[in-house]
Design goal:
single chain; 138 residues; mainly alpha; 2 domains; 57% helix; elongated
């Protein structure tokens, strides 16, 4: 067995509860494959695991095996999925980027907290003046 995918550890912690660092063909390689940053970040998106992720961020000097054991034993099994942004929100993303001068990531975050009225107001403020092409002139 080769190197373990870092995202397999998140699956192990969140749902399967299978220990991926002990009883493998190469336990040291399994420990080196663990990336604490990725696990901490993935768990920080969920309210029931945020405090635990924060504790591990404060104690980043702890060995990978100990961090993994902590999560494996303290996090209750549950399917945790990250919030995905709507693909159809492209026009709204572009409006937010232009209005606030944000990049894609910040615009997506802003879109998740803006309501329909606020988006409509931004759209009105960004409308360009000028003559319409649908009018006929004499």
């Amino acid at each position: 067995m080769g190197k373990i995918n870092p995202f397999d550890y998140n699956t192990s912690i969140n749902s399967s509860k299978k220990d991926l660092m002990r009883g493998t063909a190469n336990d040291r390689l399994a420990e080196k494959s663990y990336v604490p940053f990725l696990t901490n970040r993935a768990l920080s998106y969920h309210h029931d695991a945020l405090a635990f992720a924060n504790e591990m961020n404060l104690r980043s000097q702890i060995d990978n095996l100990l961090q993994y054991d902590f999560y494996l034993n303290i996090i209750r099994p549950k399917k945790r999925y990250a919030k995905w942004f709507k693909k159809s929100a492209g026009e709204e993303i572009n409006l937010i980027k232009e209005y606030y001068g944000y990049n894609n990531t910040n615009a997506q975050q802003a879109l998740s907290i803006l309501n329909e009225n606020q988006l409509a107001l931004i759209k009105v403020k960004l409308q360009k003046g000028g003559m319409s092409n649908d009018r006929e002139y004499d």
